[in-house]
Description:
The protein has 172 residues and is an alpha+beta fold. It has helices at residues 11-24, 48-61, 90-98, 124-134; strands at 2-7, 35-42, 65-74, 82-86, 115-119, 141-145, 147-153, 159-166. It has one domain (2-166): Cyclic phosphodiesterase (Cyclic Phosphodiesterase, Chain: A). The strands form two sheets. The chain has a four-stranded antiparallel sheet. It has a four-stranded antiparallel sheet with strand order 5-4-3-6. The model has no long low-confidence stretch (mean pLDDT 93). This is Putative phosphoesterase EDD69_10413. It is an enzyme of class 3 (hydrolase). Belongs to the 2H phosphoesterase superfamily. YjcG family.
Amino acid sequence: MKCGIAIFPSKKIQDFANSYRKRYDTHYSLIPPHLTLKNTFEVEEDQIESVVKELHKIAAEIEPFPLRITKFSSFYPASNIIYLKVEPNESLTTLYNKLHSGPFQEQTEDAFVPHITIGRDLSNDEFSDVYGQLKMQKVHFEETVDRFHLLYQLENGSWTAYETFHLGKEQG
């Protein structure tokens, strides 16, 4: 099955992102606003429980951490994707690295740029117009991340949570 790992921000941030995504993101109906920690990867049905077990171990090693969103940005000229920039921090980077090493190791071409996509598949003209307006807006959100999610893709292409992993040592 196709899986991915992501952080879903608070409803407040999701509502803000969705106010743009519904117009500019072709994946709006497939997944809520999220910060991707691990892109799509295949897991055999009989391996899913070992993946879940490993993710619980990783989650226990990382304490909750701050998530700061500071501005609109883009991947232009590589692509016409517009996103909310998430400021990197040591805990977020450590979590990302743990999800790309050991049993989760893979060759990745891209550097980790934490972000929440709000626009994709825009024409050059539309991108220039929309990004030109957005990059002048002030954006500031700050909250604490205390969980991440293993997602899987449904037959219709949408994504849903398979399991949620709480950061830090389990209570009790």
